[in-house]
């Protein structure tokens, strides 16, 4: 809710300043712009061009409930993504891969293997350099891992992908935490972290796990005089935590963040104002309208794809029929050629049979002539008998050969009749195929497709504000209930992150781990999470 108002104010300011030649981008944490003053009246370097960064000063506690407008969500998504890539927010490797897949989905839409071919992410900055250097993996291997996750997000819109990105990012330990160097009463150097949930004290070498935390609902009063801050817990038996910071300007910024975050913390647990309720109602109506439009487009796309598939099926059927007709025509031609060849062979066999019959007749005539011829001597008689015997054997062989040739001629005639019958059948099949209608064209037409806040008392020498004790116990119970609900919602996400971590763990280079990586791994082994740190109240 607060982020909605802050972003709206930033956008209105941006529109008012568009006439000036500045490169406008966010409000820095070191020097906030005062809307009651001219831009150039602020204490800043006057070199041109002057670059402004308009950023969310107060991070939302629950992005899904508080980021109402799409433009607010998109700008905040860009801010958080930049903070993660520039390593201002620590992100473990497995979560970095998943976040990169959602960022790619928000930019390119649904994954399409015909469009998003290998190498399409070569120019994209997707992972923190710390993560890339931590594993012995090439750019192609990282792209493959990211693409596998990217393909699973099919069906989400850009806004949904950005929201999933922010829902994962808001669970990171350093999300929304502003760090300040401080010293306690003993002079020990510490870090003070201020975020939407409370105040946290860190060791300078460990920004992930606070040594002690003060949730906003357990703080009774925060005050500072000169450079000394005092945090008074709601439990009056607990010690007052005091610390010093180096600069008065930093002290004012810390106090502003404390007041703003505490005020937003209390407002989130009260009924929304009428303006915010109207904004949320408009956002829900717009979301419902977009969903209806999306379903309509998906239905039209589905009908168009079905019509295209039907057309492709008809075209394939036509091609199949054409192939069958072509094959039948070729078979007919082969049958005609075979029939001609068999007829020619039959004619040759018939001629050979006639020739053999003629030779057999001549041999028989010769045999008769020899018998009639008288041989007077025994030798001549014997020779004649031998010749007769040979002539009889030759005549017998010729008769057998003549009979074989006659049988072969009969077989060839039978083959010729079968070939002509095959030719007749092939012609009838060709006529049957050519008489069929190929397909009925399917016309494609676009029309056819288918209550009370804390009291603050300020003075020149001593500034303080008191939080009332009223309803603090009730707030504590509500927070615990929200934590339980949150843990149930994040169970599936944690399983997905563990699966990604297991896949890339074998390629990890231990010697390149940064101190934050080591701390994150120790916290994971101990079961320490961002939410469990709030139970450590000193």
UniProtKB/TrEMBL annotation:
Compositional bias annotation for Basic and acidic residues: 401-425, 515-528
| GO terms for MF | actin binding
Report the locations given in the UniProt record. Answer: Cell membrane
Region annotated Disordered sits at 401-426, 515-538
Recorded hits in InterPro entries, A to Z, give: Band_41_domain, ERM, ERM_C_dom, ERM_FERM_C, ERM_helical, Ez/rad/moesin-like, FERM/acyl-CoA-bd_prot_sf, FERM_2
List the Gene3D superfamilies: 1.20.5.450, 1.20.80.10, 6.10.360.10, Pleckstrin-homology domain (PH domain)/Phosphotyrosine-binding domain (PTB) (2.30.29.30)
Pfam families of this UniProt entry? ERM_C, ERM_helical, FERM_C, FERM_M
The source's superkingdom equals Eukaryota
This protein's GO cellular component annotations are: plasma membrane
Residue intervals of the FERM domain: 1-269
Q: What does the record say about its membrane topology?
A: Peripheral membrane protein
User: What is the official name of this protein in its record?
Assistant: Merlin-like
- What high-level taxonomic lineage is stated for the organism? Eukaryota, Metazoa, Chordata, Craniata, Vertebrata
Gene (UniProt): nf2a
């Amino acid at each position: 809710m607060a982020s909605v108002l802050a972003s709206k104010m930033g956008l209105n300011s941006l529109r008012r300043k568009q006439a000036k030649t500045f490169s406008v981008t966010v409000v820095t944490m070191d020097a906030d712009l005062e809307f009651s003053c001219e831009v150039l009246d602020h204490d800043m370097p006057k070199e041109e061009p002057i670059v402004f960064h308009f950023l969310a000063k107060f991070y939302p506690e629950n992005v899904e409930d508080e980021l109402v407008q799409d433009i607010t969500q998109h700008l905040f998504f860009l801010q958080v993504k930049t903070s993660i890539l520039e390593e201002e927010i620590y992100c473990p490797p497995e979560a970095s891969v998943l976040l990169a897949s959602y960022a790619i989905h928000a930019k390119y839409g649904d994954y399409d293997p015909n469009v998003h071919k290998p190498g399409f992410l070569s120019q994209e900055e997707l992972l923190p350099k710390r993560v890339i250097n931590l594993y012995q993996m090439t750019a192609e291997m990282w792209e493959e891992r990211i693409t596998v996750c990217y393909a699973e997000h099919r069906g989400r819109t850009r806004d949904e992908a950005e929201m999933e990105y922010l829902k994962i990012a808001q669970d990171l330990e350093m999300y929304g935490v502003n760090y300040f160097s401080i010293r306690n009463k003993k002079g020990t150097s510490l870090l003070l972290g201020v975020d939407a949930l409370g105040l946290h004290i860190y060791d300078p070498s460990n920004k992930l796990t606070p040594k002690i935390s003060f949730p906003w609902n357990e703080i009774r009063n925060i005050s500072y005089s000169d450079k000394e801050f005092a945090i008074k817990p709601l439990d009056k038996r607990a010690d007052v935590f005091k610390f010093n910071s180096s600069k008065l300007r930093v002290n004012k910024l810390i106090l502003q963040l404390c007041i703003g975050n505490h005020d937003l913390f209390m407002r989130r647990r009260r009924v929304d104002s009428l303006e915010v309720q109207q904004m949320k109602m408009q956002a829900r109506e717009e979301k419902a309208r977009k969903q209806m439009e999306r379903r309509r487009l998906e239905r039209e796309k589905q009908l168009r794809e079905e019509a295209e598939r039907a057309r492709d099926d008809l075209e394939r059927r036509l091609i199949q029929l054409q192939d069958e007709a072509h094959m039948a025509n070729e078979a007919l031609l082969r049958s005609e050629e075979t029939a001609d060849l068999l007829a020619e062979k039959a004619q040759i066999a018939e001629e050979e049979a006639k020739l053999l019959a003629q030779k057999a007749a001549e041999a028989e005539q010769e045999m008769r002539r020899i018998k009639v011829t008288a041989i007077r001597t025994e030798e001549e008689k014997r020779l004649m008998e031998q010749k007769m015997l040979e002539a009889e054997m030759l005549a017998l062989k010729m008769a057998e050969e003549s009979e074989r040739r006659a049988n072969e001629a009969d077989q060839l005639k039978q083959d010729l009749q079968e070939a002509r019958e095959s030719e007749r059948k092939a012609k009838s099949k060709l006529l049957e195929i050519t008489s069929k209608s190929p397909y009925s064209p399917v016309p494609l037409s676009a029309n056819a497709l288918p209550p009370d806040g804390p009291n603050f008392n300020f003075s020149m020498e001593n500034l303080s504000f008191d939080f009332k004790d009223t309803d603090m116990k009730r707030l504590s119970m509500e927070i615990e209930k929200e934590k339980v609900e949150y843990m149930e919602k994040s169970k599936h996400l944690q399983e997905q992150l563990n699966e990604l971590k297991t896949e890339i763990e074998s390629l990890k280079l231990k010697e390149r781990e940064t101190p934050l990586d080591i701390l994150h791994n120790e916290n994971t082994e101990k079961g320490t999470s961002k939410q469990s740190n709030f139970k450590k109240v000193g």
